[in-house]
Amino acid sequence: MRSQVVRLLLLSVLLHASSTAQAELPVDAPELATRGASAVGTQSITLIDPDRLDVLKPDGVGGFHRHARTLPIEIWYPAVSAPKRAQRITYTMPAPFLGGRKSNPAQRLSFAGQATRGAKPVAGHFPLVVLSHGYNNRAVGFSELAENLASKGYVVIAIEHGDLDPAIAGSRRASFSQVLVDRSADQRFVIAEVRRRAAAAPRGVFATIAADEIALVGYSMGGYGAIASAGAGYDPKSPLMAMLPKALMAGSMEGDGKPVPGLKALILFGPWGGSPATRMWSPAALGRISAPALVIDGDHDDIADYANGVQWLFGHMVQSDRYFLTYREARHNIAMNAAPASVADDYLYIDKFNEPVWRKDRILAINAHMITAFLDLHLKRMSDQASYLNVPTPAADAGSWPLAEGEVSGAQLAQRTGASANYWRGFQRRWALGLELVHRSPADDRAADTR
């Protein structure tokens, strides 16, 4: 009996370790995916927008009741160094609602991380990166990317939008309507409030934010909101916009949409809203986005519609100096953390978080590499980082870095000069495959118009 108890205790320890073990950087990660030199601190803060119209509460006379919208945020930042044992944390979030399965409000998922809660911020001023998740996702699902960027000298804030389970909202239509109405409004409120606190704070994490150096990162419906927050007002003729009361969308429609103050860079993961049946913008509205942009998607994205939706959006952002990174054979799950180990044997969770063909840890590493180069270039003005983005061949596998007969490639990383100059900088020899990176500038678009 005693031996059985011991075995059960050991099994419990092993299972706990497997669910809380930190995600390690894969050895095939490209160069800039490596974490930076800084320790990382994290804090959870709740912001409240005191006077927001509530799409779920009509007043019975053609309008809507107002409410105080609660928006928790998770903040990651460069922190004063701490012992390695202190740089361990577990983030938890409610389990997402999954199609065809009744939700369990008590179930929570966890992600292990490398940060210290409440750590003292490093003195200085750091660019701000705001992360906005997709429908039915959560703020801490960005923890790996957020920690990575914070270790490199960015303050990162992820918004918890609190998307409602259709069973609670009353229907999927009601749940999704809230997202359509509130995504950009949430982003705008959080950025405005953070800027206000940064200007007023004498100390603490808000005092370290360079509030005029902002990047907005949106995934899926977060990307839908981010496009509007970058200045592209919604098309009133869009079928979905036509279904929403105009009062709810005031300030976000075409003609009155303006970019959030301080916005210097835009990152869109599989942004929703470009597909013909649900197209939310006119070409003219998209042409008002001037912030440099990095778009990332899989060429088999069947949620945001890669060919007719995401590429269409990219093509019409003609005033933005922009890049489009494509994962060949990937679908929509090209952002957020991988499925937690605790649900790794559950297909619905794998379908929610992971990709059919690509390893998720490799996707996250490539994202960190490209996003680091993009943010360093546009928020920190590090001009050399452009060489990681201005790749010698749009298709990664068209790059050349010859091997002599019998030569072993080893763990070398491509450089901008020498034998590897025609290979994607920062990638291992033979490992830059399955990727495409296209660059378009406003000058390119003007030249195309004159042909």
How would you describe this protein?
This protein is α/β, with parallel strands linked by helices and 451 residues long. It contains twelve helices and twelve strands. The protein has helices at residues 2-20, 143-150, 166-169, 172-200, 221-229, 239-243, 283-286, 306-316, 347-353, 360-379, 386-389, 442-449, and strands spanning 39-58, 64-79, 89-94, 108-113, 116-117, 126-132, 155-159, 209-219, 263-269, 293-298, 322-327, 435-440. The chain has a ten-stranded mixed beta sheet with strand order 5-1-2-7-6-8-9-10-11-12, sandwiched between helices. A two-stranded antiparallel ribbon has the order 3-4. The N and C termini lie far apart (83 Å). 45% of the residues are buried.
Overall pLDDT confidence: 91
Rg measurement, Å = 22 Å
β-strand amount: 15-25%
Report the structural category.
Answer: alpha/beta
- Percent of residues in helices comes to 25-40%
Q: Strand count, sense and closure of the main sheet?
A: 10 strands, mixed
What is the molecular shape?
globular
Arrangement of strands in the largest sheet? 5-1-2-7-6-8-9-10-11-12
How far apart are the termini?
A: 83 Å
Summarize the helices and strands and which ones pair or pack.
Blueprint: H1 2-20, E1 39-58, E2 64-79, E3 89-94, E4 108-113, E5 116-117, E6 126-132, H2 143-150, E7 155-159, H3 166-169, H4 172-200, E8 209-219, H5 221-229, H6 239-243, E9 263-269, H7 283-286, E10 293-298, H8 306-316, E11 322-327, H9 347-353, H10 360-379, H11 386-389, E12 435-440, H12 442-449
Parallel strand pairs: 1-5, 6-7, 6-8, 8-9, 9-10, 10-11
Antiparallel strand pairs: 1-2, 2-7, 3-4, 11-12
Helix pairs in contact: 2-10, 4-5
